Amino acid sequence: MLIDSHAHLQDKKFARDLNRVLARAADAGIERLIVVGDKLESSRRAIQLARHEPCLAAAVGIHPHHEAAFSPLALLELERLARDSAVVAIGEIGLDFHYPGYQRERQIECFAAQAHLAGRRNLPLIIHCRDAYDDLIDLIRTDERIPRRGVVHCFSGDLPQAEELIRLGFHLGLGGAITYPNGAALRDVVSRIGLDRVLCETDAPYLPPQSKRGRRNEPSYMKHTVKMLADLTGVSYQDAARITKTNAIRLFDLPDAARGAVTYAIRRNLYLSITNRCSNECYYCQRCQDYMVMGHFLKLDEEPTAAELLDRVADIHQYDEIVLSGLGEPTMRWDVCRQVARGLKERGARVGLNTNGNGSLINQRDLTPELAGLFDSVGVNLIAHDRETYNRIAHPRDPARSWDAMLDFVKSARAVVPDVTLNLVAVPEVDVEACRRLAEDELQVRFRVREWRGNGDAGCAVCAPDPGAGAS
Questions:
Q1: What's the CATH superfamily of 2-252?
Q2: I need a surface site. Which of 1, 129, 287, 465 has the fewest CB within 10 A?
Q3: pLDDT above 90 covers what percent of the chain?
Q4: CATH of segment(s) 263-451
Q5: Is the peptide bond before 205 cis (omega within 30 degrees of 0)?
Q6: Residue 301 backbone class (left: φ over 0; alpha: ψ -120 to 50; beta: rest)
């Protein structure tokens, strides 16, 4: 299911067939849409639509193209509109320095006033920015009353600008423009930043995807953008849809019935959440933040039994591998791990284990002989290149023994498991090349690095796997 985070369904181009447009959107898997205003009248109309259609929510604001209509009275009216329960954001507001004759100071004044309103109402921003990214970033940096929460709609900036906006707390809205022949630079940006802070949008009736150019854009066309996002970031269509949907739910505080996932699919693997308990407290782990990994909420209501986990795996043949993982250390429930792995192997599955490598220390016996015949792959979170850095990042329960226990586990596991990988999140204090030498030269196992983006979305090397990663 999808969320279109930016559409102008109140536009007169939809006046005659909006019901059919919404029906086609539902058929295309779009369950919710944000109807965005660009002046007072369109903001009122957005609220009216959202009141009558349960799948719609509204945003209110005055676009920089309509700066002449902005006034103290207009701001008072926007504040009144923003109190409506249908309103989830302030926007579309922003800066547009593209056309000759633009009024820079006037646009900044209008944007700042509306952004301050968002701060007073505790609402996120929907920002329009064209040829003004550096000015926008400087304004957000220097004005403490501008909330650092929102989306830069129809993002068209470069990589440093994208990274800085994300660092400042913003999401990037991407739509049909990413499919255009002249969108190579934008596609490169997306391939580098990933989807952790991306929303999918149409901007309907404007900016249709390339395959629909010349037509009125509509929400049902968003699937073309989602496919492009998936292709660029190396995930499945379902992954891209789920991640961008979850980002929109969290940003706009939309209703969400999601519960902690016991099983969750990423790319062509299925992951089983064994526990949220862990013997480490790595500062970058999503357990320390929001329990979100690639659009999945992994905070368990209760720990599942082995039978419950096996019941959740309906068709093993649709997955390349079924991995015992989750946001926690699965070997803390080693008996459950063994039962689940045995049951899956009896059904012909390829089975993996993602671990911090402290299972033997946790269970006070060498677990590695028990891996034989149950696990086809093991992924171990290396964390760092030496004991001191490891302890500083992981905060293990047993700092005197955890580092050596992890290395001993890897050495023993490689003798009984055909595929062992050391995984690393490349946080700043880690020497990646030293880690590579440790894995490949000394321990003679595979090595994989996961980029750390520094925005709270890095996840864990074993809990949020990247493509083509052995056990992951």
A1: Metal-dependent hydrolases (3.20.20.140)
A2: 1
A3: 87
A4: 3.20.20.70
A5: yes
A6: alpha
